[in-house]
Amino acid sequence: MLVLGIETSCDETAVGVVEDGRRLLANIVASQADIHARYGGVVPEVASRHHIEAMVGVVRAAMFEAGVERKDLDAIAVTAGPGLAGSLLVGLNTAKSLAYAWDKPLIGVNHLEGHLYANWLNPVAKEPPPPEVPELPAIVMIVSGGHSELIYVAEHGSYKLMGRTRDDAAGEAFDKAARVLGLGFPGGPAIERAAREAGPKPPRLPRAWLGESNDFSFSGLKTAVGRVAQESEAPVADIAAGFQTAVCDVLTRKAVRVAEATGAASILLSGGVAANGPLRTMLRERSPVPVWVPPPVLCTDNGAMIAAAAHFRAESGRAGLDLDVRASWPIAG
Ligand code: KG4
Ligand code: ZN
Q: Is the CB of 186 under 6 A from ligand 1?
């Protein structure tokens, strides 16, 4: 099954082509990060306009890269939500138009499910995938600019929400902390880079454990970063490192605790923040079960993960041309 996947839920115009949910044939991402950096965050109206300008070119580039023609495709998949409504609409209407014009089934995909299935993709482009896949049941931790969720995946398509953020998402915390420290946008890569220059004793920043809850809270940490920056002599690199360690500590401890409590056979990481090196290392060191993390290009928003998810959702995800965007769409209750 050859699927073209379209993703426009936030600020990347992205299209991927994937065979049987695992073989990556193309993954083209037109990022708007430079444009939004000027404003210090994603401006929804600006994002939708740029999606419109980039969309057709990105579809063409992905088909060219994959070496496929429209007749080869079995389905068109698209992120229907959650995300910015105006941005989602551009991808959705493109997908509907292609499905109609080329007479292909349309599959609506939940963005979070896309992040989950990034772990099934073979990162080596064009190569047939190796036989190993993540073992289920699994805990997936999705950490991005809009999400911090711990989800129990009993089997394909069966999810239970185990924990989520009560305020800022993990990526949002990185972005806000970077802003406070004057490190630019997006904050995650900027903080990770700055933290590499830190001295041996970075300040210890507070962790919000929330008792026995599996939920997260990161808004206090942002305030703490501001306070330490104002009141101490600590260099920016040290504060960045203290912040990064605090976020990674909370994320990994809760992921491991939920995995142990549920008897999960693996932990899967995904979302933009999963690109963070120290987070990947800490989770691998602490997890009692195998940890799967996609390469950074497949952690951040992309169309290949949407095409991959569509393969595992081929029947239940099939939609008519009246498919609408769902700006908020929980993956599970
Ligand atoms: O998944 P994604 O591309 O878009 C959303 O769906 O939100 O995630 C973007 C988020 C941003 O908040 C960005 O700062 C964060 O992921 N991020 C990182 C890193 N790379 C991206 N956070 C920490 N370390 C990184 N290396
Ligand atoms: Zn995302």
A: yes
